[in-house]
Amino acid sequence: MKQCPRCQQTYADELLNFCLHDGEMLVDLQTEPTSPRFADDPPPTMVMDNVRVTNPYQSPAPMVQQPYQQWQPAVNPQFGFAAATADDTMAKAAMILGIASVVLVCCYGGLWLGIPAMVTGFIGWRKAQEDPSKYTGSGMAVSGIAMGGVTFLVSLILMFLAILN
Question: How many Cβ atoms are within 10 Å of 156's Cβ, its own excluded?
Answer without folding.
Answer: 14
